[in-house]
Every structure is written in structure tokens, then in C-alpha cells.
């Protein structure tokens, strides 16, 4: 074999592999980017950041008329239970407002959303910018063949054949932490409260990262320009914890609330109306995250609030292609 | 756009090759001009603000080289010393002034913001070698065009290997059209793909583990600290040797055989052997241009003087990597390591080779902590963790490994560790190159795997790019 032929064979092999990989990725269309699948592989999220980010290009705009943004505290809110609006839960474990903004702005650039539901926890504004290497526009190309894609496809295959459990549904909800006992939650909560009482300084969660509020404002302005209404949700905080941190929470909300438009609807789950919910440790998984049952109550309250409002004209209603 | 990126692999490199041979066919000098332009574009992508330094260095050294070659013996010496002083001063001012001002507590006078021009440590040494070669009559002075190509050739401009003008003879003084050497190009392709695989697949996988450990604010357990430092040890090798393979491979497309830079360094059974196998072009520079002149400062150098010269040369070599105390200590420790190694050799006592390998490797892992740490305090904290100061067992699998992609990366890092000690290196593979269908298909598949990884992870810059 000559060196020239060697190079030709090597190039041809690489080209064939790359083309067949790209073609099969296109046909499988795991992230619903190419319109090949009405119902992308949303049943098996792996690499939540990548998946939800890529779903924001086509799948979410074409199938939903509202969006819930938040960190892990709202991750297990099953928005499928909201019937008045098709709300996609874009919450990501460990996300900040910049990353959530990337998804929200991507969706709003492609469709008119009826509601943007912001589940506001200080964790969202504690950091600024991308927290990982993911969620960049370059990631679009990973849909043509990448490790994340292969893992997603493999997980989807396993989930479809009952070989692995799937923690997500097509509305973005994840029940990833379910199964923790109330005793475990109580232990975690007691430890947290004791630590806060002992240290006497605010939790690092309350630190506002420089630039984080600008990220929030940018997302809210995009929503305002798009005519998207905003629902601000203060998630329930266990009462004993809230009482220890009351000043920090109130100071935080006082700092952030004015950034929202004046006509923003607000549900404050830390008001006295929800005391019973917040006093029951079985509603929590640990010192912060909500138990599924509690998350469902929150979702019902959101649904009640949304249904009390008139539908906005021109929202992405009835354009869904999802079965 | 750097080696290992989509831009360089699929656009810049093919365009450079096609343009070079195309223009060279029209007129050989046009090929040279094309390659200089391509190299300057490449350099501008790496750091456009460094371009004036590169041009100034190339122009100044070309003038000096030409003068040195045509001057009398006495003037030659003067010009050589002026040239050496000029090159070293440029490096000192641009790269080390802030560090030295800090040392003498005058840090407030350091001019900030500009940053160190990319590749200045490399191209300054290349120019020093050129001047010395002109002085000793080992190189014929380049024409201006050739010297610009020699000074800016994109495969080595940012991170080496350090080359001499004679290594570039195929590219310089060309007065007939360049013709693609298929044998050399096929070898180049193989080396380039191996380098790409090393960088995109292996080094990036190791980097994930290493960066996780080094980035943690909390104290590491002993297990976590060793995983972190071992991962960095492998990352550094695969990162830099991957780059070198790509650089050497890319140069072969232009008919140039750049010198070997790595020879399975982690297989070394002594510190002396390690420096003969690691960053060979730099080691060779240190020996020729630092250690030997120090040694010759005495008419009859003693063993003690030779060892002192070793420590001094290695300290400077350490500092060459960066303006920080961590690099100075790294250099001193390697100097001491070489001295201990030489003293032991002198005793002629036997030493089990496996134990030699183990001690050498442990020495490397420990000293590379200094290479990675941002300060001596951070290094001390890592050493403490490696000794079990914050607990022995305990490994946060979620953090270091995470989900399936993380597990894959961890498995690759572990396999890469083993490959370092068992596999032949890229240069050996390439020198045994015989074209076959099996080899070509294997290479194609290797390239595809590398491309998939390039498409999966945000590319991390080469570690040596900062030097």
C-alpha cells in the first residue's frame, strides 16, 4: 500500500464514520432540534444542563406556552399537573439565574410565552455566569454526535425497555431525590438550623454575586418586551429555618423584588397562609428541598393563580405538536 | 484557534497546506510568503497583542545573525553578547519584571494589563540558538523572508518544540517548487491524529479529575489528593505530548521533520533518564546553553561544581516555565533530584530498576504539585492532603466522577495512566510506520473518536500555552 492510498483510506474511513454518526443523530433527533421527532428523548435526561438547554431551541417553544425557571428547589415541581397552561419546568439542579436565563431567553426568542414563573431562591443569584462548560451555543453541534448524546440515547433505550429508572417527564420535572425519609430530613434540617444559630452569620446562599442581578434583570426585560407575564414564587422554607434566617430572607427579597415589573404576580409560600405546610417536616427532603407531596401543593397553588388570570392574546397556545 | 480545535484541524491546516503547495508551484517565494502569513494569522488568533514582540524579535535577530556571520572574530563576540543580552532582556522585562519587582517589594511599579505575549519563552530561546549557531558557523544566516518563516512557523511558535535553523532546512532557502512528500505526510497525519486523540480524549478526561480536585475549596482526603495529583501528572503529559505530536505531525505536511520532544518519560527509572525523555528540546537547550557554560566557567570543573551547575541550570529552567516561586522551587527540587541521582551513580551501588522507576515517578507526581499550584501555600495544602492530614479515606464520587460521561472520563484517565507505562510513544509508532489498510482504518476511527470528544467537551487550553 502506498502512503497516498493510506491517507485516502484513513480520510475515507473518518468521513464515513462521521457522516453516518451525524445522519443517525439527525434521524434519532434526541433533543428534538431537527423536527424529526414530535416527542424527543425527554424521557431520559442525562446531562440536565445540555438537555434542557438544547430542548429550548425547538421542543419547548413548540410544545409549551409557559416556563418555570429555578434551581433544584423547583426541580421536582410536576408542571404537567397544571392544566390551564402548558408549563415547562426548566429548573436545573445547581443552576444559577444566568443559566436559567439562557434557556428562558432562547425560548422567548422563538415563541411568545404566556407566563414566566420564577421560583426565586437566593441560590440562583449566589453565582454569576456559566457554572460548567455546558450550555454554550456551540453545544448545538453536540446533537450531531457527542458523548452526552450517546449517554442520553443509551439511557433512553434502557428506560424504554425497563432496564433503568427514569426520573424525568416530558414537562421537565424530575423526582431524582424522592425516597428520603422524614427522619433524614429532620436530621438535616436540625443540623442546618443549629449551624446557622451557632455561626450567627448569613448562609453563603444569601451572597449576591456581582452581575447576578443583571442576569435576572436581563431575563425579566426580555419577558417584558415579549409581553410575557411574570409570576414570582417564593418557595416554602421550613418554618424553624425561616425564623432563624428571617432577616436574611426579608433583606434578600427586599433587594430583589423591586427588579421585577410592578404587575408581577407573587405567591409567597412563607406567608402565614402556608404555615401548616411549612411546619411539617415531612414536606421536606432535607434542609431546603421540597418533598414531592409539598411540591405538588406548590404546583396546585401556581395552577390556581394562573387560572384566575385571563389568557393572554397571542401566546403559544394550541401550537403544540407533542401528543 | 489552537491545535486540537475544529478551526485549526478542519480549516486552517488544510488551507495552509493547499495554499503552500499551490503558491509554491507558482513561485517558491510565494509559498514562503503564504506560510508566513498563515503563521502570523495563527499567532494573532493566539494573542494578537504579542505580534509586535514577535516581529521585533525576528527582525532584530535576523539583523544580528547576518552581522555575526560576516564580522571579524572580535566583533562577532560583541554582537553575540549583545544579541543574547537583548533576547534575555526582552524576556526578563516582558515576562519577569512584575515578579522581580514583587520580590524586592516594588510590586506597585509593575505595569499590569498587557499580559505575557504567547510563546515568548519559546521563540526567544529559538532566536538564542540561531544566534549561537550563526556565531559557531553551524548555520548559514537566513534571508529576511526565511528568517520570518523560521521565527513564526505556526506548528512550534506558541509551544515549541525548540528548533534550530538546520531542522528547518527543507522549508528554508527554497528556490524550487515544494512538492508534497506522501510518505512524510502520511506519517504526519498519523502523528497529528495521535496527538489530537491524546489532547481531546485523554488529557481532557484527566483534566476533569484534576481540575475538580484542585478547584475544591474544602480540604481533600488523602485518596482524593492522590487521585487529583495523579490525574494532573497524566494530564500534563498527554496535554503537552499531544500538542507536540500535532505540531510535529503538522510540520511533516510541509516536509519538515521537527525534533522529538517526548520519549515515554514516565517509564524513566531515574531523574536523569526522565530529563532525557521529557520535553527533550528544552532539556537539550538547558544542557547546551545553561549547564555547559556554567561548567566551563571553571577551567577544571570538579564534581561539586558540576552539581552546583546542575542545580543552577534547573532553577533557571524552572523559572523559565513561569514567573512564580512555585516554578523556582520546582526547578530547585529537580536540580537536587539530579544531584542525588548523580551522587548515587558515582557510588556504583546497585539499585533495583523497578524501585528506581517507582521513586522517580513518585518524585515527579510530588514535584508536579508545584507545577499546578497557584502558590506555595496552595502546594503545601495539597502536600498535607497527600499525607492524610485531612483524613485518609473518603472519596466524593459524585463530585469527581458524576454520571455516565464522568465515569467514562475517569475510566479513560485510568487507562491512560496504564498506557503511559506500557504503550510505545507516538514517535516510536510513527518511526515504525508502514502503510496498511488496517492501520489506515484504525487511524480513521481514532480520528472520529477524537472528533466526538472535541464535540463533547469545551476545549481546555494547553497547559504549556501559558509558559
Describe this structure in words.
The complex is a heterodimer of chains A (323) and B (467). The C terminus of chain A is likely disordered. Chain A has 10 helices and 5 strands. Chain A is globular. In chain A, helix 8 links the parallel strand 4 and strand 5. In chain A, helix 2 runs parallel beside helix 4 and helix 4 runs parallel beside helix 7. The longest helix of chain A is centred in the first third of the chain and has 26 residues. Chain A has 323 residues and is an alpha/beta fold. Chain A has a 5-stranded parallel β-sheet with strand order 2-1-3-4-5, with helices on both faces. Chain A has one domain: Rossmann fold (3-Layer(aba) Sandwich). Chain B has 467 residues and is mostly helical. Chain B folds into 2 domains: 174 residues, no CATH class; 282 residues, no CATH class. Chain B contains 19 helices and no strands. In chain B, helix 3 crosses helix 6. Classes of the chains: A alpha/beta (323), B mainly alpha (467). Chains A and B meet through helix 1 and helix 5 of A and helix 8, helix 17 and helix 19 of B.
Distance between the termini of chain A: 55 Å
Give the count of structural domains of chain A: 1
Shape by Cα distribution of chain A = globular
Q: What is the count of DSSP helices of chain A, taking H or I runs of 4+ residues?
A: 10
Spatially, the strands of the biggest sheet of chain A line up as 2-1-3-4-5
Model regions low in confidence, pLDDT < 50 over at least 5 residues of chain A:
317-323
- Helix content bin of chain A: 40-55%
CATH-defined superfamily of chain A: SGNH hydrolase
Q: How many helices of chain B in DSSP terms? A: 19
The topology string of helices and strands of chain A comes to: HHHEEHEHHHEHEHH
Major beta-sheet overview of chain A: 5 strands, parallel
Unreliable residue runs of chain B? none
Which CATH class of chain A?
Alpha Beta
